[in-house]
Amino acid sequence: MGWLWAIIVGFVLGLLAKAIIPGKQHSPLWLTTIFGMLGAIVGNAIARALGVDATSGIDWMRHLFQLIAAIVIVALGDMAYMATLGRDKRTV
Questions:
Q1: Distance separating alpha carbons of residues 25 and 88, to the nearest angstrom
Q2: With 80 as the cut, is the pLDDT of residue 88 above it?
Q3: How confident is the model at residue 62 (pLDDT cuts 50, 70, 90)?
Q4: Contacting residues for 75 by C-beta, under 8 A, at least 6 apart
Q5: Contact, 38 vs 73, CB < 8 A?
Q6: Rounded distance between C-alpha atoms, residue 40 and residue 24, angstroms
Q7: d(CA 72, CA 89)
Q8: What is the mean pLDDT of residues 10-33?
Q9: 3-class SS of residue 14
Q10: Is-contact 76 61, C-beta < 8 A?
């Protein structure tokens, strides 16, 4: 069940990051989901390092760190995708 939640959270974070980043991103949905999952992992690590480890209720700061990490990873990942595999999509 943990993997299912990781995929769902990664999917939602990836889509939110794509919506926040200006312009069009060309990375496919499966890659955006992976970027979102990586953003959740990095955001959790940053939150834990800053002492936002376990709080009662909804942990808004941890979610904020996850979203910011997902935005950065989606933006960088899309640039890498376009530089390597997405050359054909530049002309579209």
A1: 14
A2: no
A3: confident
A4: 17, 21, 25
A5: yes
A6: 22
A7: 22
A8: 91
A9: helix
A10: no
